[in-house]
Amino acid sequence: MTLPTNSDAGRENFRTSVIQLERPGDPSVFGEQTRAEAAEIIARYPIGQSRSALLPLLHLVQSEQGYVTADGIAFCAERLGLTKAQVSAVVTFYTMYKRVPTGEYLVSVCTNTLCGMLGGDEIFAALGEALDLGDNETTADATITLEHAECLAACDYAPIVTVNYEFFDNQTVASARELVAALRDGERPLPSRGAPLCSFKQIERQIAGFHDAETLAPDANSTGVPTEVGVRLAVERGHTAPSYAVERTDRRSAENGAATAPPTAPPTAPPTATPTTSAHDAPLNTSVSDPEHPQDSGGDAKPEPGSAATAGG
Ligand code: FES
Fold it and tell me: Based on the number of CB atoms within 10 Å of its own CB, is 189 exposed (0-12), middle (13-18) or buried (19 or more)?
């Protein structure tokens, strides 16, 4: 078995991805609607923490351009008050952010240990041969991008292939070849579980949190018998899990000791003074819940003095 290797096209892809990081980028290529949707995303996050909106914001720009361009990087930096270097660091870390144009269907073949042992490597090699593609390359008609993927969190259905992140379970070389042939013929085969297929740009829009009714399948079944084996056995045997709240309280007591435990708020204390289990559990206002902080609803966010966002880029 020979795994696909990158061709001249692959090397060109690499050059393209580097160019995207070196270009200054022009955020003005994104129109009013994108700016409004960016503000909607940012408003989901706590005041003063708008940088947390970067991940969905990158999916939003990817849904428009099919990949994260220099313009997308500049747009996200501008909206969040980050440096382009900070945005680029995130883009280059996560594989879901594509730095070269992506086809209508992103076909991901899991070649991690379990899938690889059960046929994932053969499937990836067969699809590379059938499509004449190396890893992370796209067909000339821009229909399919092929990539190998690390564990896709569906080991109980190995070997796994996903198309635009929808699952095609228990694949074989033959079934995977049929799948990509159908995609190239303009068909949209039904995934084994979850929502029906949509285009790469449409799924990116959904990941950003914008759900178009026609691409959603709210009633779609996302689990199957193998996924639920453990739960079914636990129910049959009467096994239960300890309460999450009790477990956290016990752990905190053990860590802090009774003498150093923080004082408990009196029963009459207002809700905001009530100690929380951790800083992450504290109720936080967003610009949606607190309209007195419109600056976090997008566009005018400024880096906090002394933050990393004020340096370089
Ligand atoms: S190893 Fe392939 S889905 Fe986990």
Answer: middle
Q: Which residues line ligand 1 (CB under 6 A)?
A: 110, 112-115, 151-152, 154-155, 158, 160
CATH 3.40.30.10 describes domain 105-215: yes
Give the alpha-carbon dihedral of 111, 115, 116, 120, to 10 degrees: -70
Q: pLDDT tens, 126-168?
A: 999 999 999 999 999 999 999 999 999 999 999 999 999 999 9
In this prediction the pTM is: 0.74
Tokens of 28: 């003005």
Kindly report the average pLDDT of the chain as a whole number: 81
Q: 217: CA distance to ligand 1 center in Å?
A: 24
Domain ranges of the chain: 1-101+284-313, 105-215
By most ligand atoms within 8 Å of CB, the mutation choice from 109, 111, 112, 168 for ligand 1 is: 112
Report the residue among 108, 109, 110, 121 best suited for mutation to probe ligand 1: largest number of ligand atoms under 8 A from its CB: 110
